[in-house]
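Hi R.,

Quick one: here's the Penicillin-binding protein activator LpoB sequence you asked about.
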Amino acid sequence: MNNMSRYALVTALALFLAGCVSRTEQPPAPVDEAKPGTTQPVQPTQPVPTVPTVPTVPEQPGPIEHQEPPAQPEPRVRHYDWNGAMQPMVDKMLQAQGVSAGSVLLVDSVNNRTNGSLNAGEATETLRSALANNGKFTLVSTQQLAVAKQQLGLSPQDSLGTRSKAIGIARNVGAQYVLYSSASGNVNAPSLQMQLMLVQTGEIIWSGKGAVQQQ
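And here's the predicted structure, written out as tokens:
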């Protein structure tokens, strides 16, 4: 009787241990994701891709059209009766006392001392023409005068400007007299002044003045 009880106990213990092993080897039942109350696996958050911002390109202006500046009005060209003012003065100068016939005369360019613009070159040419056949003076040629001015660093068209410079040029070219002329006052009705100077002493031996009319 004791042996049977002992056998039954061993058998029951063996069955119990076999049941425990089989439970241990069975895999756990899958978690039903559809059932409420179950814990869902946390999925990693994917970073949102950053789209670079394209800078706005400002509109390029079209080709700049160069506008021509407005035409400047041409300066008014004034014409004067130089001969009408010079010839009477030249006649009086040739009759002045103390002028030696056959002397060399330097005719300086007419200086513009008016309040505007005038053609002083035209005035100088008219004065030389009035003295071309005077019968008393030998004129220094324009070529000689140009060379003498070049030695002073002046262009042939430049006026000597001052009486002292005119006398210095006259000495270089061997002249005994200098005729210094200038237009002054209002450019619309200038006044012409002429002075005959002795080169050796700078003395003014004759002077004259007259009005110049526009043509």
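The beta strands are 103-107, 111-114, 137-139, 177-185, 191-198, 204-211.

Cheers,
M.
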